[in-house]
């Protein structure tokens, strides 16, 4: 598979726990930049006292699913893809975006599948439903609560701009993992599951 140019698009990657093959979100760079610029302008125009900087996230909890995991901090790799947690039992916050609780779309990804007969962190994320609560604990021990508003399955070629960028003035949290049928030929899952939540 050839590498994708950052000048053309951003490839957001989520590694699946049972596969060495990556699953991509393809997001047109121009679309991301235009929407991000709007969000930045809105933030600049806010009075200084209204801008609240959240602490760095440390753990994620989804009580109904039994998820209570450490959060790694990841960024964009050299090929323009989003890194994934090194430990399949951890989740990972995208440090290039908003912190959970800040205005905008904070993104957390995690592995799907089983490792040595133990389920990876987001193996049962497809059981989440609208109204479920997600909690992110920061490094100070403070907790920010989010409510699930939507659960969607994206095709591997879908435009996923809405997962990473928002400019509606809300603090959002989006979770991502693999989903769908495993293709032995391509060594990929057919889609990816995205959970949309807001504070």
In short:
The chain has 199 residues and is mainly beta. It has helices at residues 29-44, 161-164, and strands spanning 9-15, 22-28, 57-62, 67-74, 91-94, 104-110, 114-115, 118-119, 133-138, 143-155, 171-183, 188-198.
How is this structure best described in words?
The chain is mainly β and 199 residues long. The chain has two helices and twelve strands, in the order ββαββββββββαββ. It has helices at 29-44, 161-164, and strands at 9-15, 22-28, 57-62, 67-74, 91-94, 104-110, 114-115, 118-119, 133-138, 143-155, 171-183, 188-198. The strands form three sheets. It has an eight-stranded mixed beta barrel. It is globular, with a radius of gyration of 16 Å.
Please outline the major beta sheet.
8 strands, mixed, barrel
**Regions with pLDDT < 50 over 5+ consecutive residues?**
1-24, 26-41
SSE topology string: EEHEEEEEEEEHEE
Question: What is the CA-atom radius of gyration, in angstroms?
Answer: 16 Å
- Per DSSP, the total helix count is 2
Looking across the biggest beta sheet, what order are the strands in? 3-4-5-6-11-12-10-9
Helicity range:
10-25%
Mean pLDDT over the full residue set: 79
